[in-house]
Automatic annotation (TrEMBL):
Any one Pfam family match given in the protein's UniProt record, by short name: MMPL
Location of this chain's protein in the cell: Cell membrane
Protein name (Swiss-Prot/TrEMBL): MMPL family transporter
Keywords: Cell membrane, Membrane, Transmembrane, Transmembrane helix
Gene3D superfamilies to which the protein is assigned, alphabetical: Multidrug efflux transporter AcrB transmembrane domain (1.20.1640.10)
Native species: Ideonella lacteola
Membrane-spanning intervals of the chain: 223-242, 249-270, 282-300, 330-349, 361-381, 625-641, 676-696, 723-743, 749-768
């Protein structure tokens, strides 16, 4: 029998316990030596599928026009407007400071003090192009001339200068070192430039993607604090569970080592840490501690039974035999459940999104590490420790309130109320799952921060004064050189800009068309009705030639390439919602198809569309991943239980838990994003453990009780059922401390994990047990007729 093999194995571990502990220590040291290889990876490319059209467009935009890390800095005088020498001098110094940063894309750093920001006018000799601010204006006359230059070029209003003139902006773009990306380091450099200009005369605000990612990164760096807090919470739960220091020590030691092994393995294979994976150590620790509970709960049971059944017990020998027997009883199901959980998580390695792959590898390696340690370290150390005293053993079994609840539930299940309980359970889950119809697929880095955080405060201030702190880009491409000198193509771009500017949350659009319109207007004595695209291709070419005679060749680098085959349309948004950006693109597609001439294509890109790509890949792939995970659990469970029905019994509650998981998100308004989407995988990977522990324990107790269903139900619930509750409580409590982080990415994840663990435990203890009582499957009851209080149960059995 399987249990005999595990008895032999446990005996071997105990006989060689010192060697086992020494070997595990060596492995721990070797894996911990790889911890320094771990990197916190904030590179967007590793978070998104590289084949997605938005990603391909972004790479094309980046290659031609620069980076994708748009940043806006606002300088706001505390009194008056920007038209005074002191404020403009600050803008000029910030412009120069940002340009000189190592990661800055110089031609994409713009303010009224930038070289490429030009005043376009005409005179009798032709077109006159000169810098808006050659030097800081000092006299009232120079200030007034500067004001007229800004106001006569609408291109700069609402982007570089607020419409009321009371704020000036520096727009910057950066390339981040992809070998070791750190937005926190970049933001620190930006702040160093800005801090030199902060004083009582101005407020300085900064926003954009690098700021959002820097905030994310800073919260990631606080994860050791959250991990430590989760560790203390789980230790408290373990102590409450076992009422002894020994009972607390072994699961916690196993849990911490499991995390270290998994982290070391990640370093060994070169998988980086990312935003999703920063909380995975808490998951691994919680799961490992939970498995430790299962072993030690069984150990205390066996120790108590052996002590009572031995006439003159030697506690040291009883201790050794209890360790062997607990491994023999729990080892098979723990191996099966752990392997299924690990394989289930590992299936995420097929995901198109690296964060999902990394999560799968990390969680799978952590579960496997926990399984190895629990089957080696716990029996080795438990056999070395002093046996529990009678007081400790009695205290461990003393959970009167919880036991009473579980016994009452068992009586209800075996007292003819199982159909009612099952119907009520299905009803509860159905109500919860109904919320899935309201779920939204969205990702907003900014909303991860508290409303009163510096990130959100600065963002509100900047959005109130300028076009927006977020950008998307439309890449317009012609099929030949000078395609974008065609009036039809330029007019189509103008119509696209007008359409976009009329949409809510769009504050400003910019393109080469705005400059051409301004040139045409200047050449027509600044007539308001001449701010349009000339209908003559030759005239457009002539305008551009005239501009080049007095302007710089690089002035248009942010908007069109040298061959006039590719152009970028900048769209400034007041929101970073991926859902909104996707809807905006869908609305624009009809106009693009209708207005742009043959040979000219338009596609969307930028950092926000890249996030959309990641979200789409996660959500569309999630259906496949969930189906894949459920199938793996079904096949493995059916093989282990040697029953098709057994596979259904394990997976049916898991499907309901996943449905409830999405329902909770819908009811609570929690969006489906890169953080919350991982909880469905947790529900399957961990929920399968619960089902298997309870099924195996019920089958064991049924055999021990001679087929008495009532006795088997009561005993399985107050043993393995109680342990399942402790495991769920450990995981939920471990994550619950994240609710205090003030970082929505973590707090949303915490809410989902707590809800998922509650529903998973409910499904395993109530739903699964009710199914067992109603259908009486043969893989549990065997060929013998089940009995209840000595009388045969009604025959209604699943094959």
């Amino acid at each position: 029998m399987m249990s005999d093999l595990y008895r032999q194995y446990a005996g071997f571990v105990i006989r060689h316990r010192k060697s086992v502990v020494a070997l595990l220590a060596v492995v721990t040291v070797l894996l911990c030596s790889r911890l320094m290889s771990l990197q916190v990876d904030m590179d967007q490319d590793t978070w998104i599928p590289q084949s997605h059209p938005y990603v391909q467009t972004t790479k094309a935009l980046e290659k031609v026009f620069g980076g994708r890390n748009f940043t806006i800095i606002g300088v706001v005088p505390k009194s008056g407007d920007i038209y005074n020498p002191q404020v403009l001098a600050k803008v000029q110094r910030i412009q120069e400071g940002i340009e000189n940063l190592p990661d800055a894309i110089r031609h994409n750093v713009m303010s009224v003090a930038a070289r490429k920001v030009k005043d376009i006018k005409a005179n009798d000799s032709g077109l006159v192009v000169k810098r808006v601010m050659e030097k800081v204006p000092a006299t009232p006359q120079e200030i007034e001339a500067f004001r007229r230059a800004v106001e006569s070029n609408p291109f700069y209003v609402n982007s570089l200068v607020s419409p009321d003139g009371k704020a000036a902006a520096i727009i910057a773009d950066f390339k981040v070192d992809t070998s070791k990306p750190s937005y926190a380091a970049l933001y620190s450099q930006i702040k160093e430039v800005l801090d030199k200009e902060r004083d009582d005369s101005v407020d300085i605000y900064v926003g954009g993607l690098p700021v959002d990612f820097a905030s994310f990164e800073s919260h990631m760096m606080q994860m050791p604090i959250y991990f430590g807090a989760a560790l203390l919470i789980i230790m408290a739960i373990q102590y409450w569970s076992f009422k002894s220091f020994q009972g607390m020590l072994l699961p916690i030691l196993t849990a911490v080592l499991s995390v270290l092994w998994a982290l070391g393995f990640m370093g060994l294979i070169g998988v980086h840490m990312d935003g999703m994976n920063t909380t995975t150590p808490i998951l691994i620790m919680s799961v490992a501690a939970g498995h430790g509970i299962q072993i030690l709960k069984r150990y205390y049971e066996e120790f108590h039974r052996l002590r009572l059944s031995t006439a003159r017990p030697d506690d040291r020998e009883v201790n050794r035999q209890a360790v062997i027997e607990s491994i023999a009883r729990v080892g098979p199901v723990m191996t099966i459940a752990g392997a299924i959980a690990a394989i289930t998580f590992a299936t995420l390695a097929t995901s198109d999104v690296s964060v999902a792959r990394h999560f799968g590898v990390f969680a799978a390696s952590g579960v496997m590490a926990a399984l190895i340690l629990e089957m080696t370290l716990i029996p080795a150390l438990r056999s070395m420790l002093r046996p529990p005293s009678k007081t400790e053993a009695a205290a461990e079994r003393s959970h009167k309130v919880l036991d009473a609840i579980l016994i009452r539930l068992a009586n209800g299940l075996t007292g003819g109320r199982a159909p009612l309980i099952l119907a009520a359970g299905v009803g509860v889950i159905a109500v919860i799952a109904a919320g899935a119809s309201q779920i939204q697929i969205d990702n907003s880095l900014r909303t991860y921060s508290r409303p009163d955080s510096e990130v959100r405060v600065h963002d509100r201030e900047l959005n109130a004064r300028f076009g927006g702190t977020n950008t998307i880009y439309f890449l317009v491409e012609g099929d030949k050189t000078d395609s974008l000198k065609d009036p039809k193509a330029l007019t189509a771009i103008a119509e696209l800009q007008d359409f976009l500017a009329a949409q809510p949350n769009v504050g400003k659009t910019q393109s080469i068309v705005d400059l051409i319109k301004r040139i045409n207007q200047a050449m027509h004595a600044d007539a308001a009705d001449q701010a349009l695209v000339p209908p003559d291709r030759a005239l457009i070419a002539q305008y551009l030639l005239l501009y080049s005679m007095s302007g710089d060749p690089q002035d248009f680098d942010s908007y069109v390439d040298n061959d006039y085959r590719r152009a970028a349309v900048w769209v400034f948004l007041k929101t970073d919602s991926t859902n909104y950006a996707e809807q905006l693109h869908q609305k624009a597609e009809a106009l693009i198809r209708d207005k742009f001439p043959p040979g000219v294509t338009v596609r969307m890109g930028g950092s926000l569309p890249q996030t959309i790509a990641g979200n789409q890949a996660l959500t569309t792939g999630k259906t496949k991943n969930i189906a894949q995970m459920v199938l793996v659990v079904f096949v493995l469970s059916a093989l282990i239980l040697r029953s098709f029905v057994g596979g259904l019994f394990v997976t049916t509650p898991l499907v309901l838990v996943v449905m409830a998981n999405f329902g909770v998100m819908g009811w609570f308004g929690i969006p489906l994003d890169m953080g919350t989407i991982s909880t469905a995988a947790m529900a399957i990977g961990i929920g399968a453990d619960y089902e298997l522990y309870l099924l195996f324990r019920f089958r064991e107790e049924l055999q021990r009780a001679g087929g008495d269903v009532a006795a088997a139900t009561r005993q399985s619930l107050v043993t393995s059922g109680k342990a399942v509750l402790y495991v769920a409580l450990s995981i939920a409590a471990g994550y619950s401390f994240l609710l205090t982080s003030g970082f929505a990415f973590y707090s949303r994840l915490a809410v989902m994990v707590v809800a998922t663990m509650a529903v998973s435990a409910f499904a395993a203890i109530i739903f699964l047990r009710a199914m067992t009582m109603i259908f009486k499957p043969r893989f549990i009851f065997g060929a013998n007729k089940p009995v209840l209080n000595g009388a045969p149960l009604r025959e209604s059995r699943a094959q």
